[in-house]
Amino acid sequence: MVRILGKTELETYAEHSRLFLDYVASPSKGISPWLTGLSSEDGFWKSKETAVDEAAARSVQTTWEDVVDDVHALSLKLGTCDELLGKIQKAESRDTLFVVTGQQPGVLGGPLLAIYKISTAISLAAHVERVLNRPCVPLYWCGADDSDFQEIRSLHFLTQQGSPVTTSMPQAAHAAGVPTGNITLEWPKRVWTGLAKIIDEFGPGEAVKRVVDESFERADDHGELAAAILVGLFRGRVAVVDGRSAAVRRHAKPVFTEYTTAESEIKDEITSQGCRLEDSGYHAQLEVGDDSGVFLLENGVRKNVTARHHARVIDAAERNVEICSPGVVARNLVQDFVFSPVAVVLGPAEIAYRAQMSDLYGRFEIVRPAAVPRLTATFVPPALGAMVETGGESQLRFLLTDPSGYARSIYAASVPNQLDDASRDLEKRVGEAIDRFSDAVEKETNSKTLGKLRTRLTDLRNRTSQTIEAVRDIGKAAALARWPFLSELENVIRPNGKPQERSLSGLTPFLYGNDDAADDLLSIAGSYVDDLLDGRVNHVVYSPE
């Protein structure tokens, strides 16, 4: 079982943009005109449903059926459950709605944020299904066509004792410009083999090993492997679409055509919207460059296209759209054009993208889905969780904002009481005695001996401080003997000074949990979604019991 240790304001843990914080401060209001609001009211979701149905009536049915077949085939291959597969099949006749989230495929499924996105999408889809009495599929867009290897190559894992270990795929696994999804299984297999001893330490590790091993059997490359692991961890309760899908690109041909032919105008709109955001005290998340926002695939390599060769992109969009690979702006438009989701589950930066892109949805006649901030959370190993749970909200904040300081407070508390009292008394008495003696020296001593005495007094103060520090080291040694992970607590809670969810493996809560780990996470996400739709957004801190 997992217990929630507490909930804090989002800014307690991470530096978020003012735009994002204003949005989550009152999600029901949104931020006009850039972000529409959210609501738990039935009418809000019914209006989204109506807009989605109108968009579906305008789409090309034959290419849409190809998309559905593609999603069904891939989801079946990667382990999506039968119930969800049935809902996907109903999507051919447009009976099914979608809640979409996505991420570039990371090592062995990627970091915790991928887990949080999916758990939020599953919980929100269940809510939409209840409200509208209509099938709703949580769909994971695996950004396997992206080529940013540095972003996905490394992850942190935790030992059973809670100490961090970093692992990564070597640079040799990836060639410049090649989609990260195309990385061969040899490389993640090496990572998995190297983690064997760590995984074997965990009691529930057998279930995780089974999921990962089965995913290697299901997948043909790194992109499919990452998606299969995520599907397996949640017992098949999420469907998958691959960003490399030719069927998706064919169905989205109108988007590619419009985007490439009017790209200079679109860039101007994005820049202008960024200026308006900045004039309102926010920031522009997107910066447009000279290269096209659509890449071309040539011999398996995703290549930038400069302005001078822009005609090639226009021609590809019209004649051979399968070789077009969307950048960040086009990808959002393609995704929402193809699936017309009622909602998209996004991270803080992605929500900022959406704000700056808001004008483009009218231009492309794409329905703007509800922008739903994903669950943000901190995983706390069990032994640390027991400490935090008894310390109250102030200790929770202390842990999140200053993990190293929190560890030092545990060291200090671990000094035996009698020794601690005696050291404090020594520090106080010696300090007072030195102060009195110093005053006397300044009044009575001639200048020839004053400098020498000052030096000796400074030396005495330093020696006293060193003695007190040695006493504190006794507490540190005692604490580390009991809780070894405290020495690296900063790298557990805030690795490299950044939120844990960006780099700690998504396997973590499943390794520490039990067979119900997926249900526990969905329970947390379900509570988060309920709070969100009621206008309350918090950062969750949780730990296995």
Radius of gyration over all CA atoms, rounded: 28 Å
Quote the average pLDDT: 89
| Helix/sheet category | alpha/beta
Total beta strands: 13
Model description:
This protein has 545 residues and is an alpha/beta fold. It has helices at residues 18-25, 42-58, 61-78, 82-90, 112-132, 149-152, 186-194, 196-200, 205-218, 222-233, 246-251, 253-261, 263-279, 310-319, 328-339, 348-356, 358-364, 382-389, 392-401, 403-413, 417-444, 447-482, 489-493, 508-512, 517-533; strands at 2-8, 97-103, 136-142, 154-158, 164-168, 239-242, 294-298, 301-303, 324-326, 343-346, 370-373, 377-379, 539-544. It has 25 helices and 13 strands. The strands form four sheets. A five-stranded parallel sheet has the order 6-3-2-10-11. A hairpin with a 2-residue loop joins strand 7 (294-298) and strand 8. Helix 19 packs across helix 20. The mean pLDDT is 89.
